[in-house]
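Researcher: We're teaching a course module on how sequence relates to structure. For the next exercise, students receive a sequence and then see the predicted structure as tokens, so they can try to spot secondary structure elements on their own. Here is the exercise chain.
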Amino acid sequence: MPLDPALREKILAAVEAGFDEQVAYTQELVRFASTRGQEHTVQDFIFRAMKQRGFTMDRFAMDRELIAAHPGGAHFSDTHSEAPIVVGIHRPREEKGRSLILQAHVDVVPAGPADQWKHAPFDPVIEGDWMYGRGSADMKAGAAANLFCLDALRRIGMQPAATVYVESVVEEESTGNGALMTHLRGYRAEAALIPEP
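Model: And here is the predicted structure for the students to work with:
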């Protein structure tokens, strides 16, 4: 069923009303130098942001044995991240829609040579319509969007009509084990969206 045009405009206006705050939140995420194994503090930050929004929270470690037993599991190297996975769960007042997973990763690749950066890699500078900073596109902007789309609905007194799982994972850049661990933890939905820009 198509979205009512008036409601669509109301939702778009709610997104626009929160966009500056969303950009500022994205900048906060970029300031965390969350390379492989260094994602603990950004995951704590995201946990607090979700909890403040009233989500039911789950924070858990990867289970090496479960991952090793799964055909999609990748090898645990000496540098495999031990940072937790964070999931915020929205449950509607009445379950009548289709469930959704919104997933983003917070691990980023190393910054590389500093002299090849226009700005410091973990200093989220905005010039025009562009944000500089390691991980700003891959994929901290997506991680912010996952939260702020729900904020926009809340701003106009709406909420998803089914369960939504907002998942913040690690080990995307190296193994994919973070996403797999959410599956092994039992998180399932009728659709998943990974807003990698």
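Model: If you want an answer key for the exercise: The first strand starts at residue 56 and ends at 60. The CA atoms of residues 107 and 173 lie 7 Å apart.
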